Predict the structure.
Amino acid sequence: MRIQTREIIGGGSEKIVIVPESLDDLWHLQFVLEPGDIVIGKTTRRVRRKEEISRETSGQREYMRVVIENETSEFHKFSNRLRISGVLTECPYEEQLGTYHTLNVEIFDTVSIQKKWKFDQIQRIEEAVAARDSPDILVATIEEGAAFVQTINQYGISNRANLSGSTGKGEGSDRTDIFEELLTVLTHIEVDIIVLAGPGFTKENALEYIKSRDSELAQKIILIETSSVGERGVQEVLAGGNAKDIIVKTRIGKETQVVDEIKKRIKVSGLVAYGPEEVQIAAEYGSIENLVIVDGELQEEREGRNLWKVDADEIIEMVEQKGGKITILSKEYGPGGELNGLGGIAALLRFRVN
């Protein structure tokens, strides 16, 4: 993500002009937008001119700058866009003011957001900007007769390919079919690091095959032993192994670590609180070292759709004032789902609160 400008508007509001540079950036924007935020962007809209009103025509689409008061925002990862819907407050045609419009924001579109920014929202934007320098990572897990290719995004894991075929010894050319398919997939996905994982020696055999065909690609590959393949194999990779120093720098790697720490402390009745009411009490005592919330739960709370009996923004403000850390988990991936099972919010504590 790239920030073009930041401008204080007054009344506690700030306008930030943002250029999303990846799908991850569009996903981040979904969770910083709230109802009532002012969004400025360029779009196409169907317009009927005065001379066309008497004709049976729906008018022509025109490219224009619009200002929308946001009501809903939704990230569509399969269509590569963020849809921001709300009421038009500014556009070139006065008769269209007050009508509804959906602004489709795609990668490299410039969009301005004007609002009273909350601490966690600014933190999220800054993390997205910092992530421009993070390595792009692919995990390929392989075992006898099957291979799975997935990329690690900030919002979760994306499945890129599921392959099946023979890798059994003594089966002639059939044995290399799945290796060839895997090589073809890997050469068409641009990443900085490839983690090749799985049980047994199939991954080593696959790496030798790749080295014989594409030595430059093979230099990106790190081998890791896992007991499973597919998503469970990826979870094992994220939990540690030879690539731990690399994986832990990714957003999902950090999320996995913090949820593992929460579960570990719960098992030993350690310094942890979970559930909205427990976390609020800990926040009031200034005990929270790291507040952990699932982004979907926080979004629903801010939109008034959550059943929490506490104010999430008050908790965040108390934690910020006491020097605590805020960690927002993605609802799209395992750690966020695990935290949802604990109420969608938890905290690692400095000291115990009765």
About this structure: The two ends are 42 Å apart (CA to CA).
